[in-house]
């Protein structure tokens, strides 16, 4: 079944992919799903024992990773001794890849189809708060969607109040009371914001700027999942600090913060 065919039901494709995951991993039902964004890759190993790992491109509806080496797999992990299973989606399709909103939302829909009731969305992003230095994890309290689009089609009216679950944010703060919170602004990308656009996002009430997450969260709410969003501030957004953006800075900050945020995520999921 081809996601790009408008006549095809994307939820039917998600169900087929979920059945394939159950068959390939031997895990009939998953309880929690995680999308690991830049800097968060190390968390998968800390969540628990990997039961099985499948190349995402072998599953219906997923495409090969845009950036070679960026995960590109779907993993089933036994969470500690809880008896619960986590589905780790290492293959995220970004809106800027231009493959359509159905592919952006596919992983989330597959997670719901595997039985998961909770979704953890993580990402790397730019920070608008000067004291959020590179490497800071920030809980997402709400989002502003500047993509101009939706993952939903037709008259699919969905309420987005408490989209980033207050219950799960409180649970995260039990693990780390020092966690800051912020509003995440999704830009279309793939270019970074100009300093003027960063100031616009600030005036609109944003604290984090990125190119993912908002569309996935909307699809997750529609699919009935409870959502926790956590950003890793890997750089200060353009114009916030006098030093210009550098990709090396982004990669270095993510690597440096990896152990702390991976343990944070594993502790949150284990609760
Ligand atoms: N839009 C946007 N996305 C990002 N992703 C990362 I990592 N840093 C940024 C950033 O500064 N702006």
Give a structural overview:
Helix 3 crosses helix 6. The termini are far apart. 32% of the residues lie in helices and 24% in strands. The mean pLDDT is 93. The protein has a 5-stranded mixed barrel, surrounded by 4 helices. With 271 residues, it is of the alpha/beta class. The chain has 7 helices and 9 strands; from the N terminus they run H-E-H-E-E-E-H-E-E-H-E-H-E-H-E-H. The radius of gyration is 17 Å and the shape is globular. The structure holds 8-iodo-guanine.
Q: What order do the helices and strands follow?
A: HEHEEEHEEHEHEHEH
Overall mean pLDDT score?
93
Q: Overall 3D geometry? A: globular
Please state how the strands of the largest beta sheet are arranged side by side: 5-8-7-6-9
Major sheet, described briefly? 5 strands, mixed, barrel
Helix content, binned percent: 25-40%
How large is the count of helical segments? Answer: 7
Which percent band covers the strand fraction?
Answer: 15-25%
Rounded radius of gyration (Å): 17 Å
- Poorly predicted ranges: none
Instruction: Catalogue the ligands.
Output: 8-iodo-guanine
DSSP E strands, number: 9
The CA-CA distance between the termini, in Å, is 37 Å
